[in-house]
Design brief:
Distance between the termini: 42 Å
Largest sheet: 8 strands, antiparallel, barrel
Number of strands: 10
Structural class: mainly beta
Strand content: over 45%
Helix content: 10-25%
Order of helices and strands: HEHEEEEEEEEHE
Shape: rod-shaped
């Protein structure tokens, strides 16, 4: 009986020691996350991360820009773009086991863009009496909206820190700062300027067509500052381990 009691005591001690030495997060390999602030203001997003070996994980992120300050939704006729952003990444946790602590991250980014833009056809009457083409010399105007699909690729490098919360360390906060390069999938508004030349007796002579692309610097600046292609891209997400 004495030996049996000692055996049970030893087994309980070993089990307790294992529980203490092995935090619960180490038995979890998956994490799912969302960015609540971004969801409120301009995009829905969902992220999944999986631990593969002790210090290494991989994950995927999907973003849908829905409304608000960035205007990449297709609702705004000037920007005319609806954006889906999907990414895959890998993380290295140099000082802690994967899913906890400081990490370095690399990412491949793919942006699906459904865009629209305006095409204008403006016909001017040019003659000796009207040598300049301005608004008063327009004899025909037509405007059409074109649309299509584009796919652009980019990448980013970043660093962050993931904090585990709660008694069983299942809740998490993930804060990171990325530096990314994603080219804009824009289509500029186009103007077809048609010049019809007439002689002094108002007889038609010939027609000349010019194409003008309306490149909008403000739109491109928004893309790299607050849009999907932001060069500096901070984020804070909440999540759950399982």
């Amino acid at each position: 009986m004495k030996h049996l009691f000692l055996l049970l005591l030893l087994t309980s001690t070993i089990t307790f020691a294992q529980d203490v030495e092995t935090p619960s997060f180490e038995t979890k390999k998956n994490a799912i996350k969302i960015g609540p602030l971004r969801a409120v203001f301009y995009k829905f997003n969902l992220e999944y991360e999986r631990k593969f070996i002790s210090y290494f994980s991989m994950g995927a992120v999907s973003d849908l820009y829905h409304t608000g300050i960035t205007k990449y939704t297709g609702v705004d006729s000037w920007h005319g773009i609806q954006t889906f952003k999907n990414s895959v990444y890998w993380r290295f946790y140099p000082w802690n086991k994967a899913l906890k602590g400081f990490y370095l991250q690399g990412k491949i980014i793919m942006v699906h863009a459904y865009y629209s833009y305006n095409v204008e056809y403006i016909t001017y009457k040019v003659s000796k009496n009207n040598p300049y083409y301005d608004a008063k010399n327009i004899i025909h105007y037509d405007r059409q909206k074109e649309s299509g699909f584009d796919l652009v690729f980019g990448g980013s490098a970043g660093l962050g820190y993931q904090v585990l919360l709660g008694k069983d360390q299942r809740l998490l906060l993930d804060g990171k700062l990325e530096f990314q390069i994603v080219p804009p999938p824009f289509r500029s508004n186009k103007q077809h300027i048609i010049l019809e030349y007439y002689d002094e007796d108002d007889n038609f002579l010939y027609r000349k067509v010019e194409l003008d692309n309306d490149n909008d610097a403000v739109k491109e600046l928004e893309w790299i500052l607050i849009g999907p292609g932001s060069i500096i891209y901070p984020s804070l997400k909440v999540g759950y381990l399982f």
